[in-house]
Specification:
With 172 residues, the chain is mostly beta strands. The protein contains two helices and eleven strands, in the order ββββββαββββαβ. It has a six-stranded antiparallel beta sheet, with no helix packed on it. The chain has a five-stranded antiparallel beta sheet with strand order 10-9-8-7-11, with helices on one face. The N and C termini lie far apart (63 Å). It is found in: Cell projection, Cilium, Flagellum.
Length: 172
């Protein structure tokens, strides 16, 4: 664990992690559940720093089945997923609490939306600096370096931390 930066709180059997335990990754994602032979095995839950969670059944380190729940309580359902699809583009909070009056837009599921630092983009799990190509979480902790594909996607689709004039620009 000292090499990976992870932390284990639980029992050992023959030098292997086994039984009910907590396993905390360096990203602060935490697994709480059953371990066997050093792997997730049985029922367990992954708690993510964003507040979301994955409740699952694991077999030899691999998930067999499970349910992902977003931090706002929305549960992902692969068969009956109707959230923000081509037929209904409302955010989950709009489904739960209703739409805003005409002329007042809701830009994200969080209302009011996060304030984005100038020069950065909000890419959903943190802020992206296009100059350094680094994504940091909303508490300013390093998440990852963006590759070329992610960089292009963020530039093309994510909210910016600055205003731009759209359409006709008057001559001065």
């Amino acid at each position: 664990m000292e090499y990976t930066g992870s932390q284990y709180i639980g029992e050992f059997v023959d030098g292997r992690m086994e039984g009910e335990a907590e396993y905390i990754l360096p990203t602060e994602t935490k697994y709480v559940g059953e371990m066997k032979d050093g792997m997730f095995h049985g029922q367990g839950t992954l708690y993510f720093p964003s507040g979301s969670r994955f409740d699952g059944i694991w077999e030899k380190g691999l998930v067999v089945k499970g349910t992902y729940t977003f931090s706002d309580g929305l549960q992902y359902d692969a068969k009956n997923w109707h959230y923000c699809d081509s037929y209904d583009r409302r955010f989950y909070t709009e489904i739960c609490y209703g739409l805003k009056p005409a002329g007042i837009s809701q830009l994200t599921n969080m209302d009011p939306p996060r304030k984005i630092p100038p020069g950065y983009y909000d890419c959903g799990d943190g802020f992206y600096n296009p100059i350094t190509r680094i994504v940091k979480d909303y508490r300013n902790r390093f998440l990852r370096n963006a590759d070329d594909d992610e960089h292009e996607w963020i530039i093309r689709t994510c909210r910016k931390g600055w205003d731009e004039t759209m359409g006709h620009k008057p001559k001065l």
